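Structure (tokenized):
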């Protein structure tokens, strides 16, 4: 199978028939063998009924339904596990992503050799309350991850099959799939300017909490990607530095007192010196961080490993 098109959705009953017809026209015009994996994330409207009707009319449509709302990341993770195409393309169900972009995205994966191609909505039809925070978020993510993309959270992306089978999207990590792919060993990540369309039906499903969850998830994915298998490198280094700073500070305070006493100079008790307590706190925190790194290392070494070593063989799986 050439392409798996993954469509996570939540209360998008108006747009689904139009989206399916649009995708089908593009696929048939390019003679692609394909499937459309629609994941209903616990919709409360008639979205699931429409998915069932579309699947009955078009055998290329597959539906997956969650019993309650778990979020976009859960939908993508489940669909990635079910996808059978050589190239997996994700798009939102609200018709803001254009299926006409699919052939070029497919070509960039198959012919140009990209592992992942992310869409860039260079011209957006969103309010300033969404576009301005998005620009700041993308700039911060570029700086932290080193991946030069303009639009990390664009729903329209294309993946080589091995990528989606090798990463785990959880929580709200759908915003950070390019960093997840990079840290899984897939480093050829490209970008394509894609058409963005104004929302035709319904309203956005993302609220103000994304401004809090987004930065927290970025810190989480950065830590897991860089130190998930070697937490001692982070906690141990910081802990050791703090411990040594505390020890040398305490020694300096003690030796300074002895020197002043030896010279017959007036001095105060060590315990009356506020810097003594700063040094003591530094020693305690350093010890705690070092122990935290040691325990985290034990947990990491004994935890069940999933995709610890990501490899490819000379014969790829062809479903």
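Design, position by position:
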């Amino acid at each position: 199978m050439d392409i798996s098109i993954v469509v996570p959705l939540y209360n998008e009953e108006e747009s689904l028939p139009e989206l399916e017809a649009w995708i089908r026209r593009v696929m048939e015009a390019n003679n692609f063998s394909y499937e459309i994996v629609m994941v209903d994330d616990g919709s409360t409207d008639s979205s699931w009924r429409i998915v069932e009707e579309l699947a009955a009319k078009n055998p290329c449509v597959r539906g997956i339904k969650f019993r309650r709302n778990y979020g976009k990341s859960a939908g993508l993770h489940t669909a990635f596990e079910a996808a059978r195409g050589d190239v997996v393309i994700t798009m939102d169900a609200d018709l803001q992503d254009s299926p006409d972009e699919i052939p070029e995205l497919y070509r960039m994966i198959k012919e140009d050799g990209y592992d992942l191609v992310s869409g860039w909505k260079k011209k957006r039809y969103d309010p300033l309350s969404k576009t301005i925070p998005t620009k700041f978020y993308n700039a911060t993510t570029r700086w932290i991850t080193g991946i030069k993309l303009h639009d990390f959270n664009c729903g329209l992306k294309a993946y080589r099959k091995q990528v989606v089978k090798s990463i785990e999207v959880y929580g709200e990590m759908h915003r950070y799939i390019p960093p997840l792919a990079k840290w899984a060993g897939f480093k050829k990540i490209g970008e394509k300017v894609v058409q963005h369309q104004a929302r035709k039906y319904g309203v956005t499903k993302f609220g103000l909490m994304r401004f809090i969850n987004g930065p927290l998830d970025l810190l989480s994915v950065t830590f897991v990607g860089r130190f998930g298998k070697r937490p001692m490198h982070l906690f141990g280094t910081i802990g050791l530095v703090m411990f040594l700073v505390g020890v040398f500070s305490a020694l300096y305070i003690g030796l300074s007192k002895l020197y002043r006493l030896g010279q017959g100079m007036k001095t105060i008790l060590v315990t009356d010196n506020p810097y003594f307590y700063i040094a003591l706190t530094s020693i305690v925190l350093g010890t705690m961080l070092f122990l935290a790194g040691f325990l985290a290392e034990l947990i990491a070494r004994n935890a069940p490993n999933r995709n610890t070593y990501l490899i490819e063989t000379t014969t790829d799986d062809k479903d």
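Reviewer-requested clarification: Residues 231-262 form the longest helix (32 residues). Residues 28 and 34 are 9 Å apart (CA to CA).
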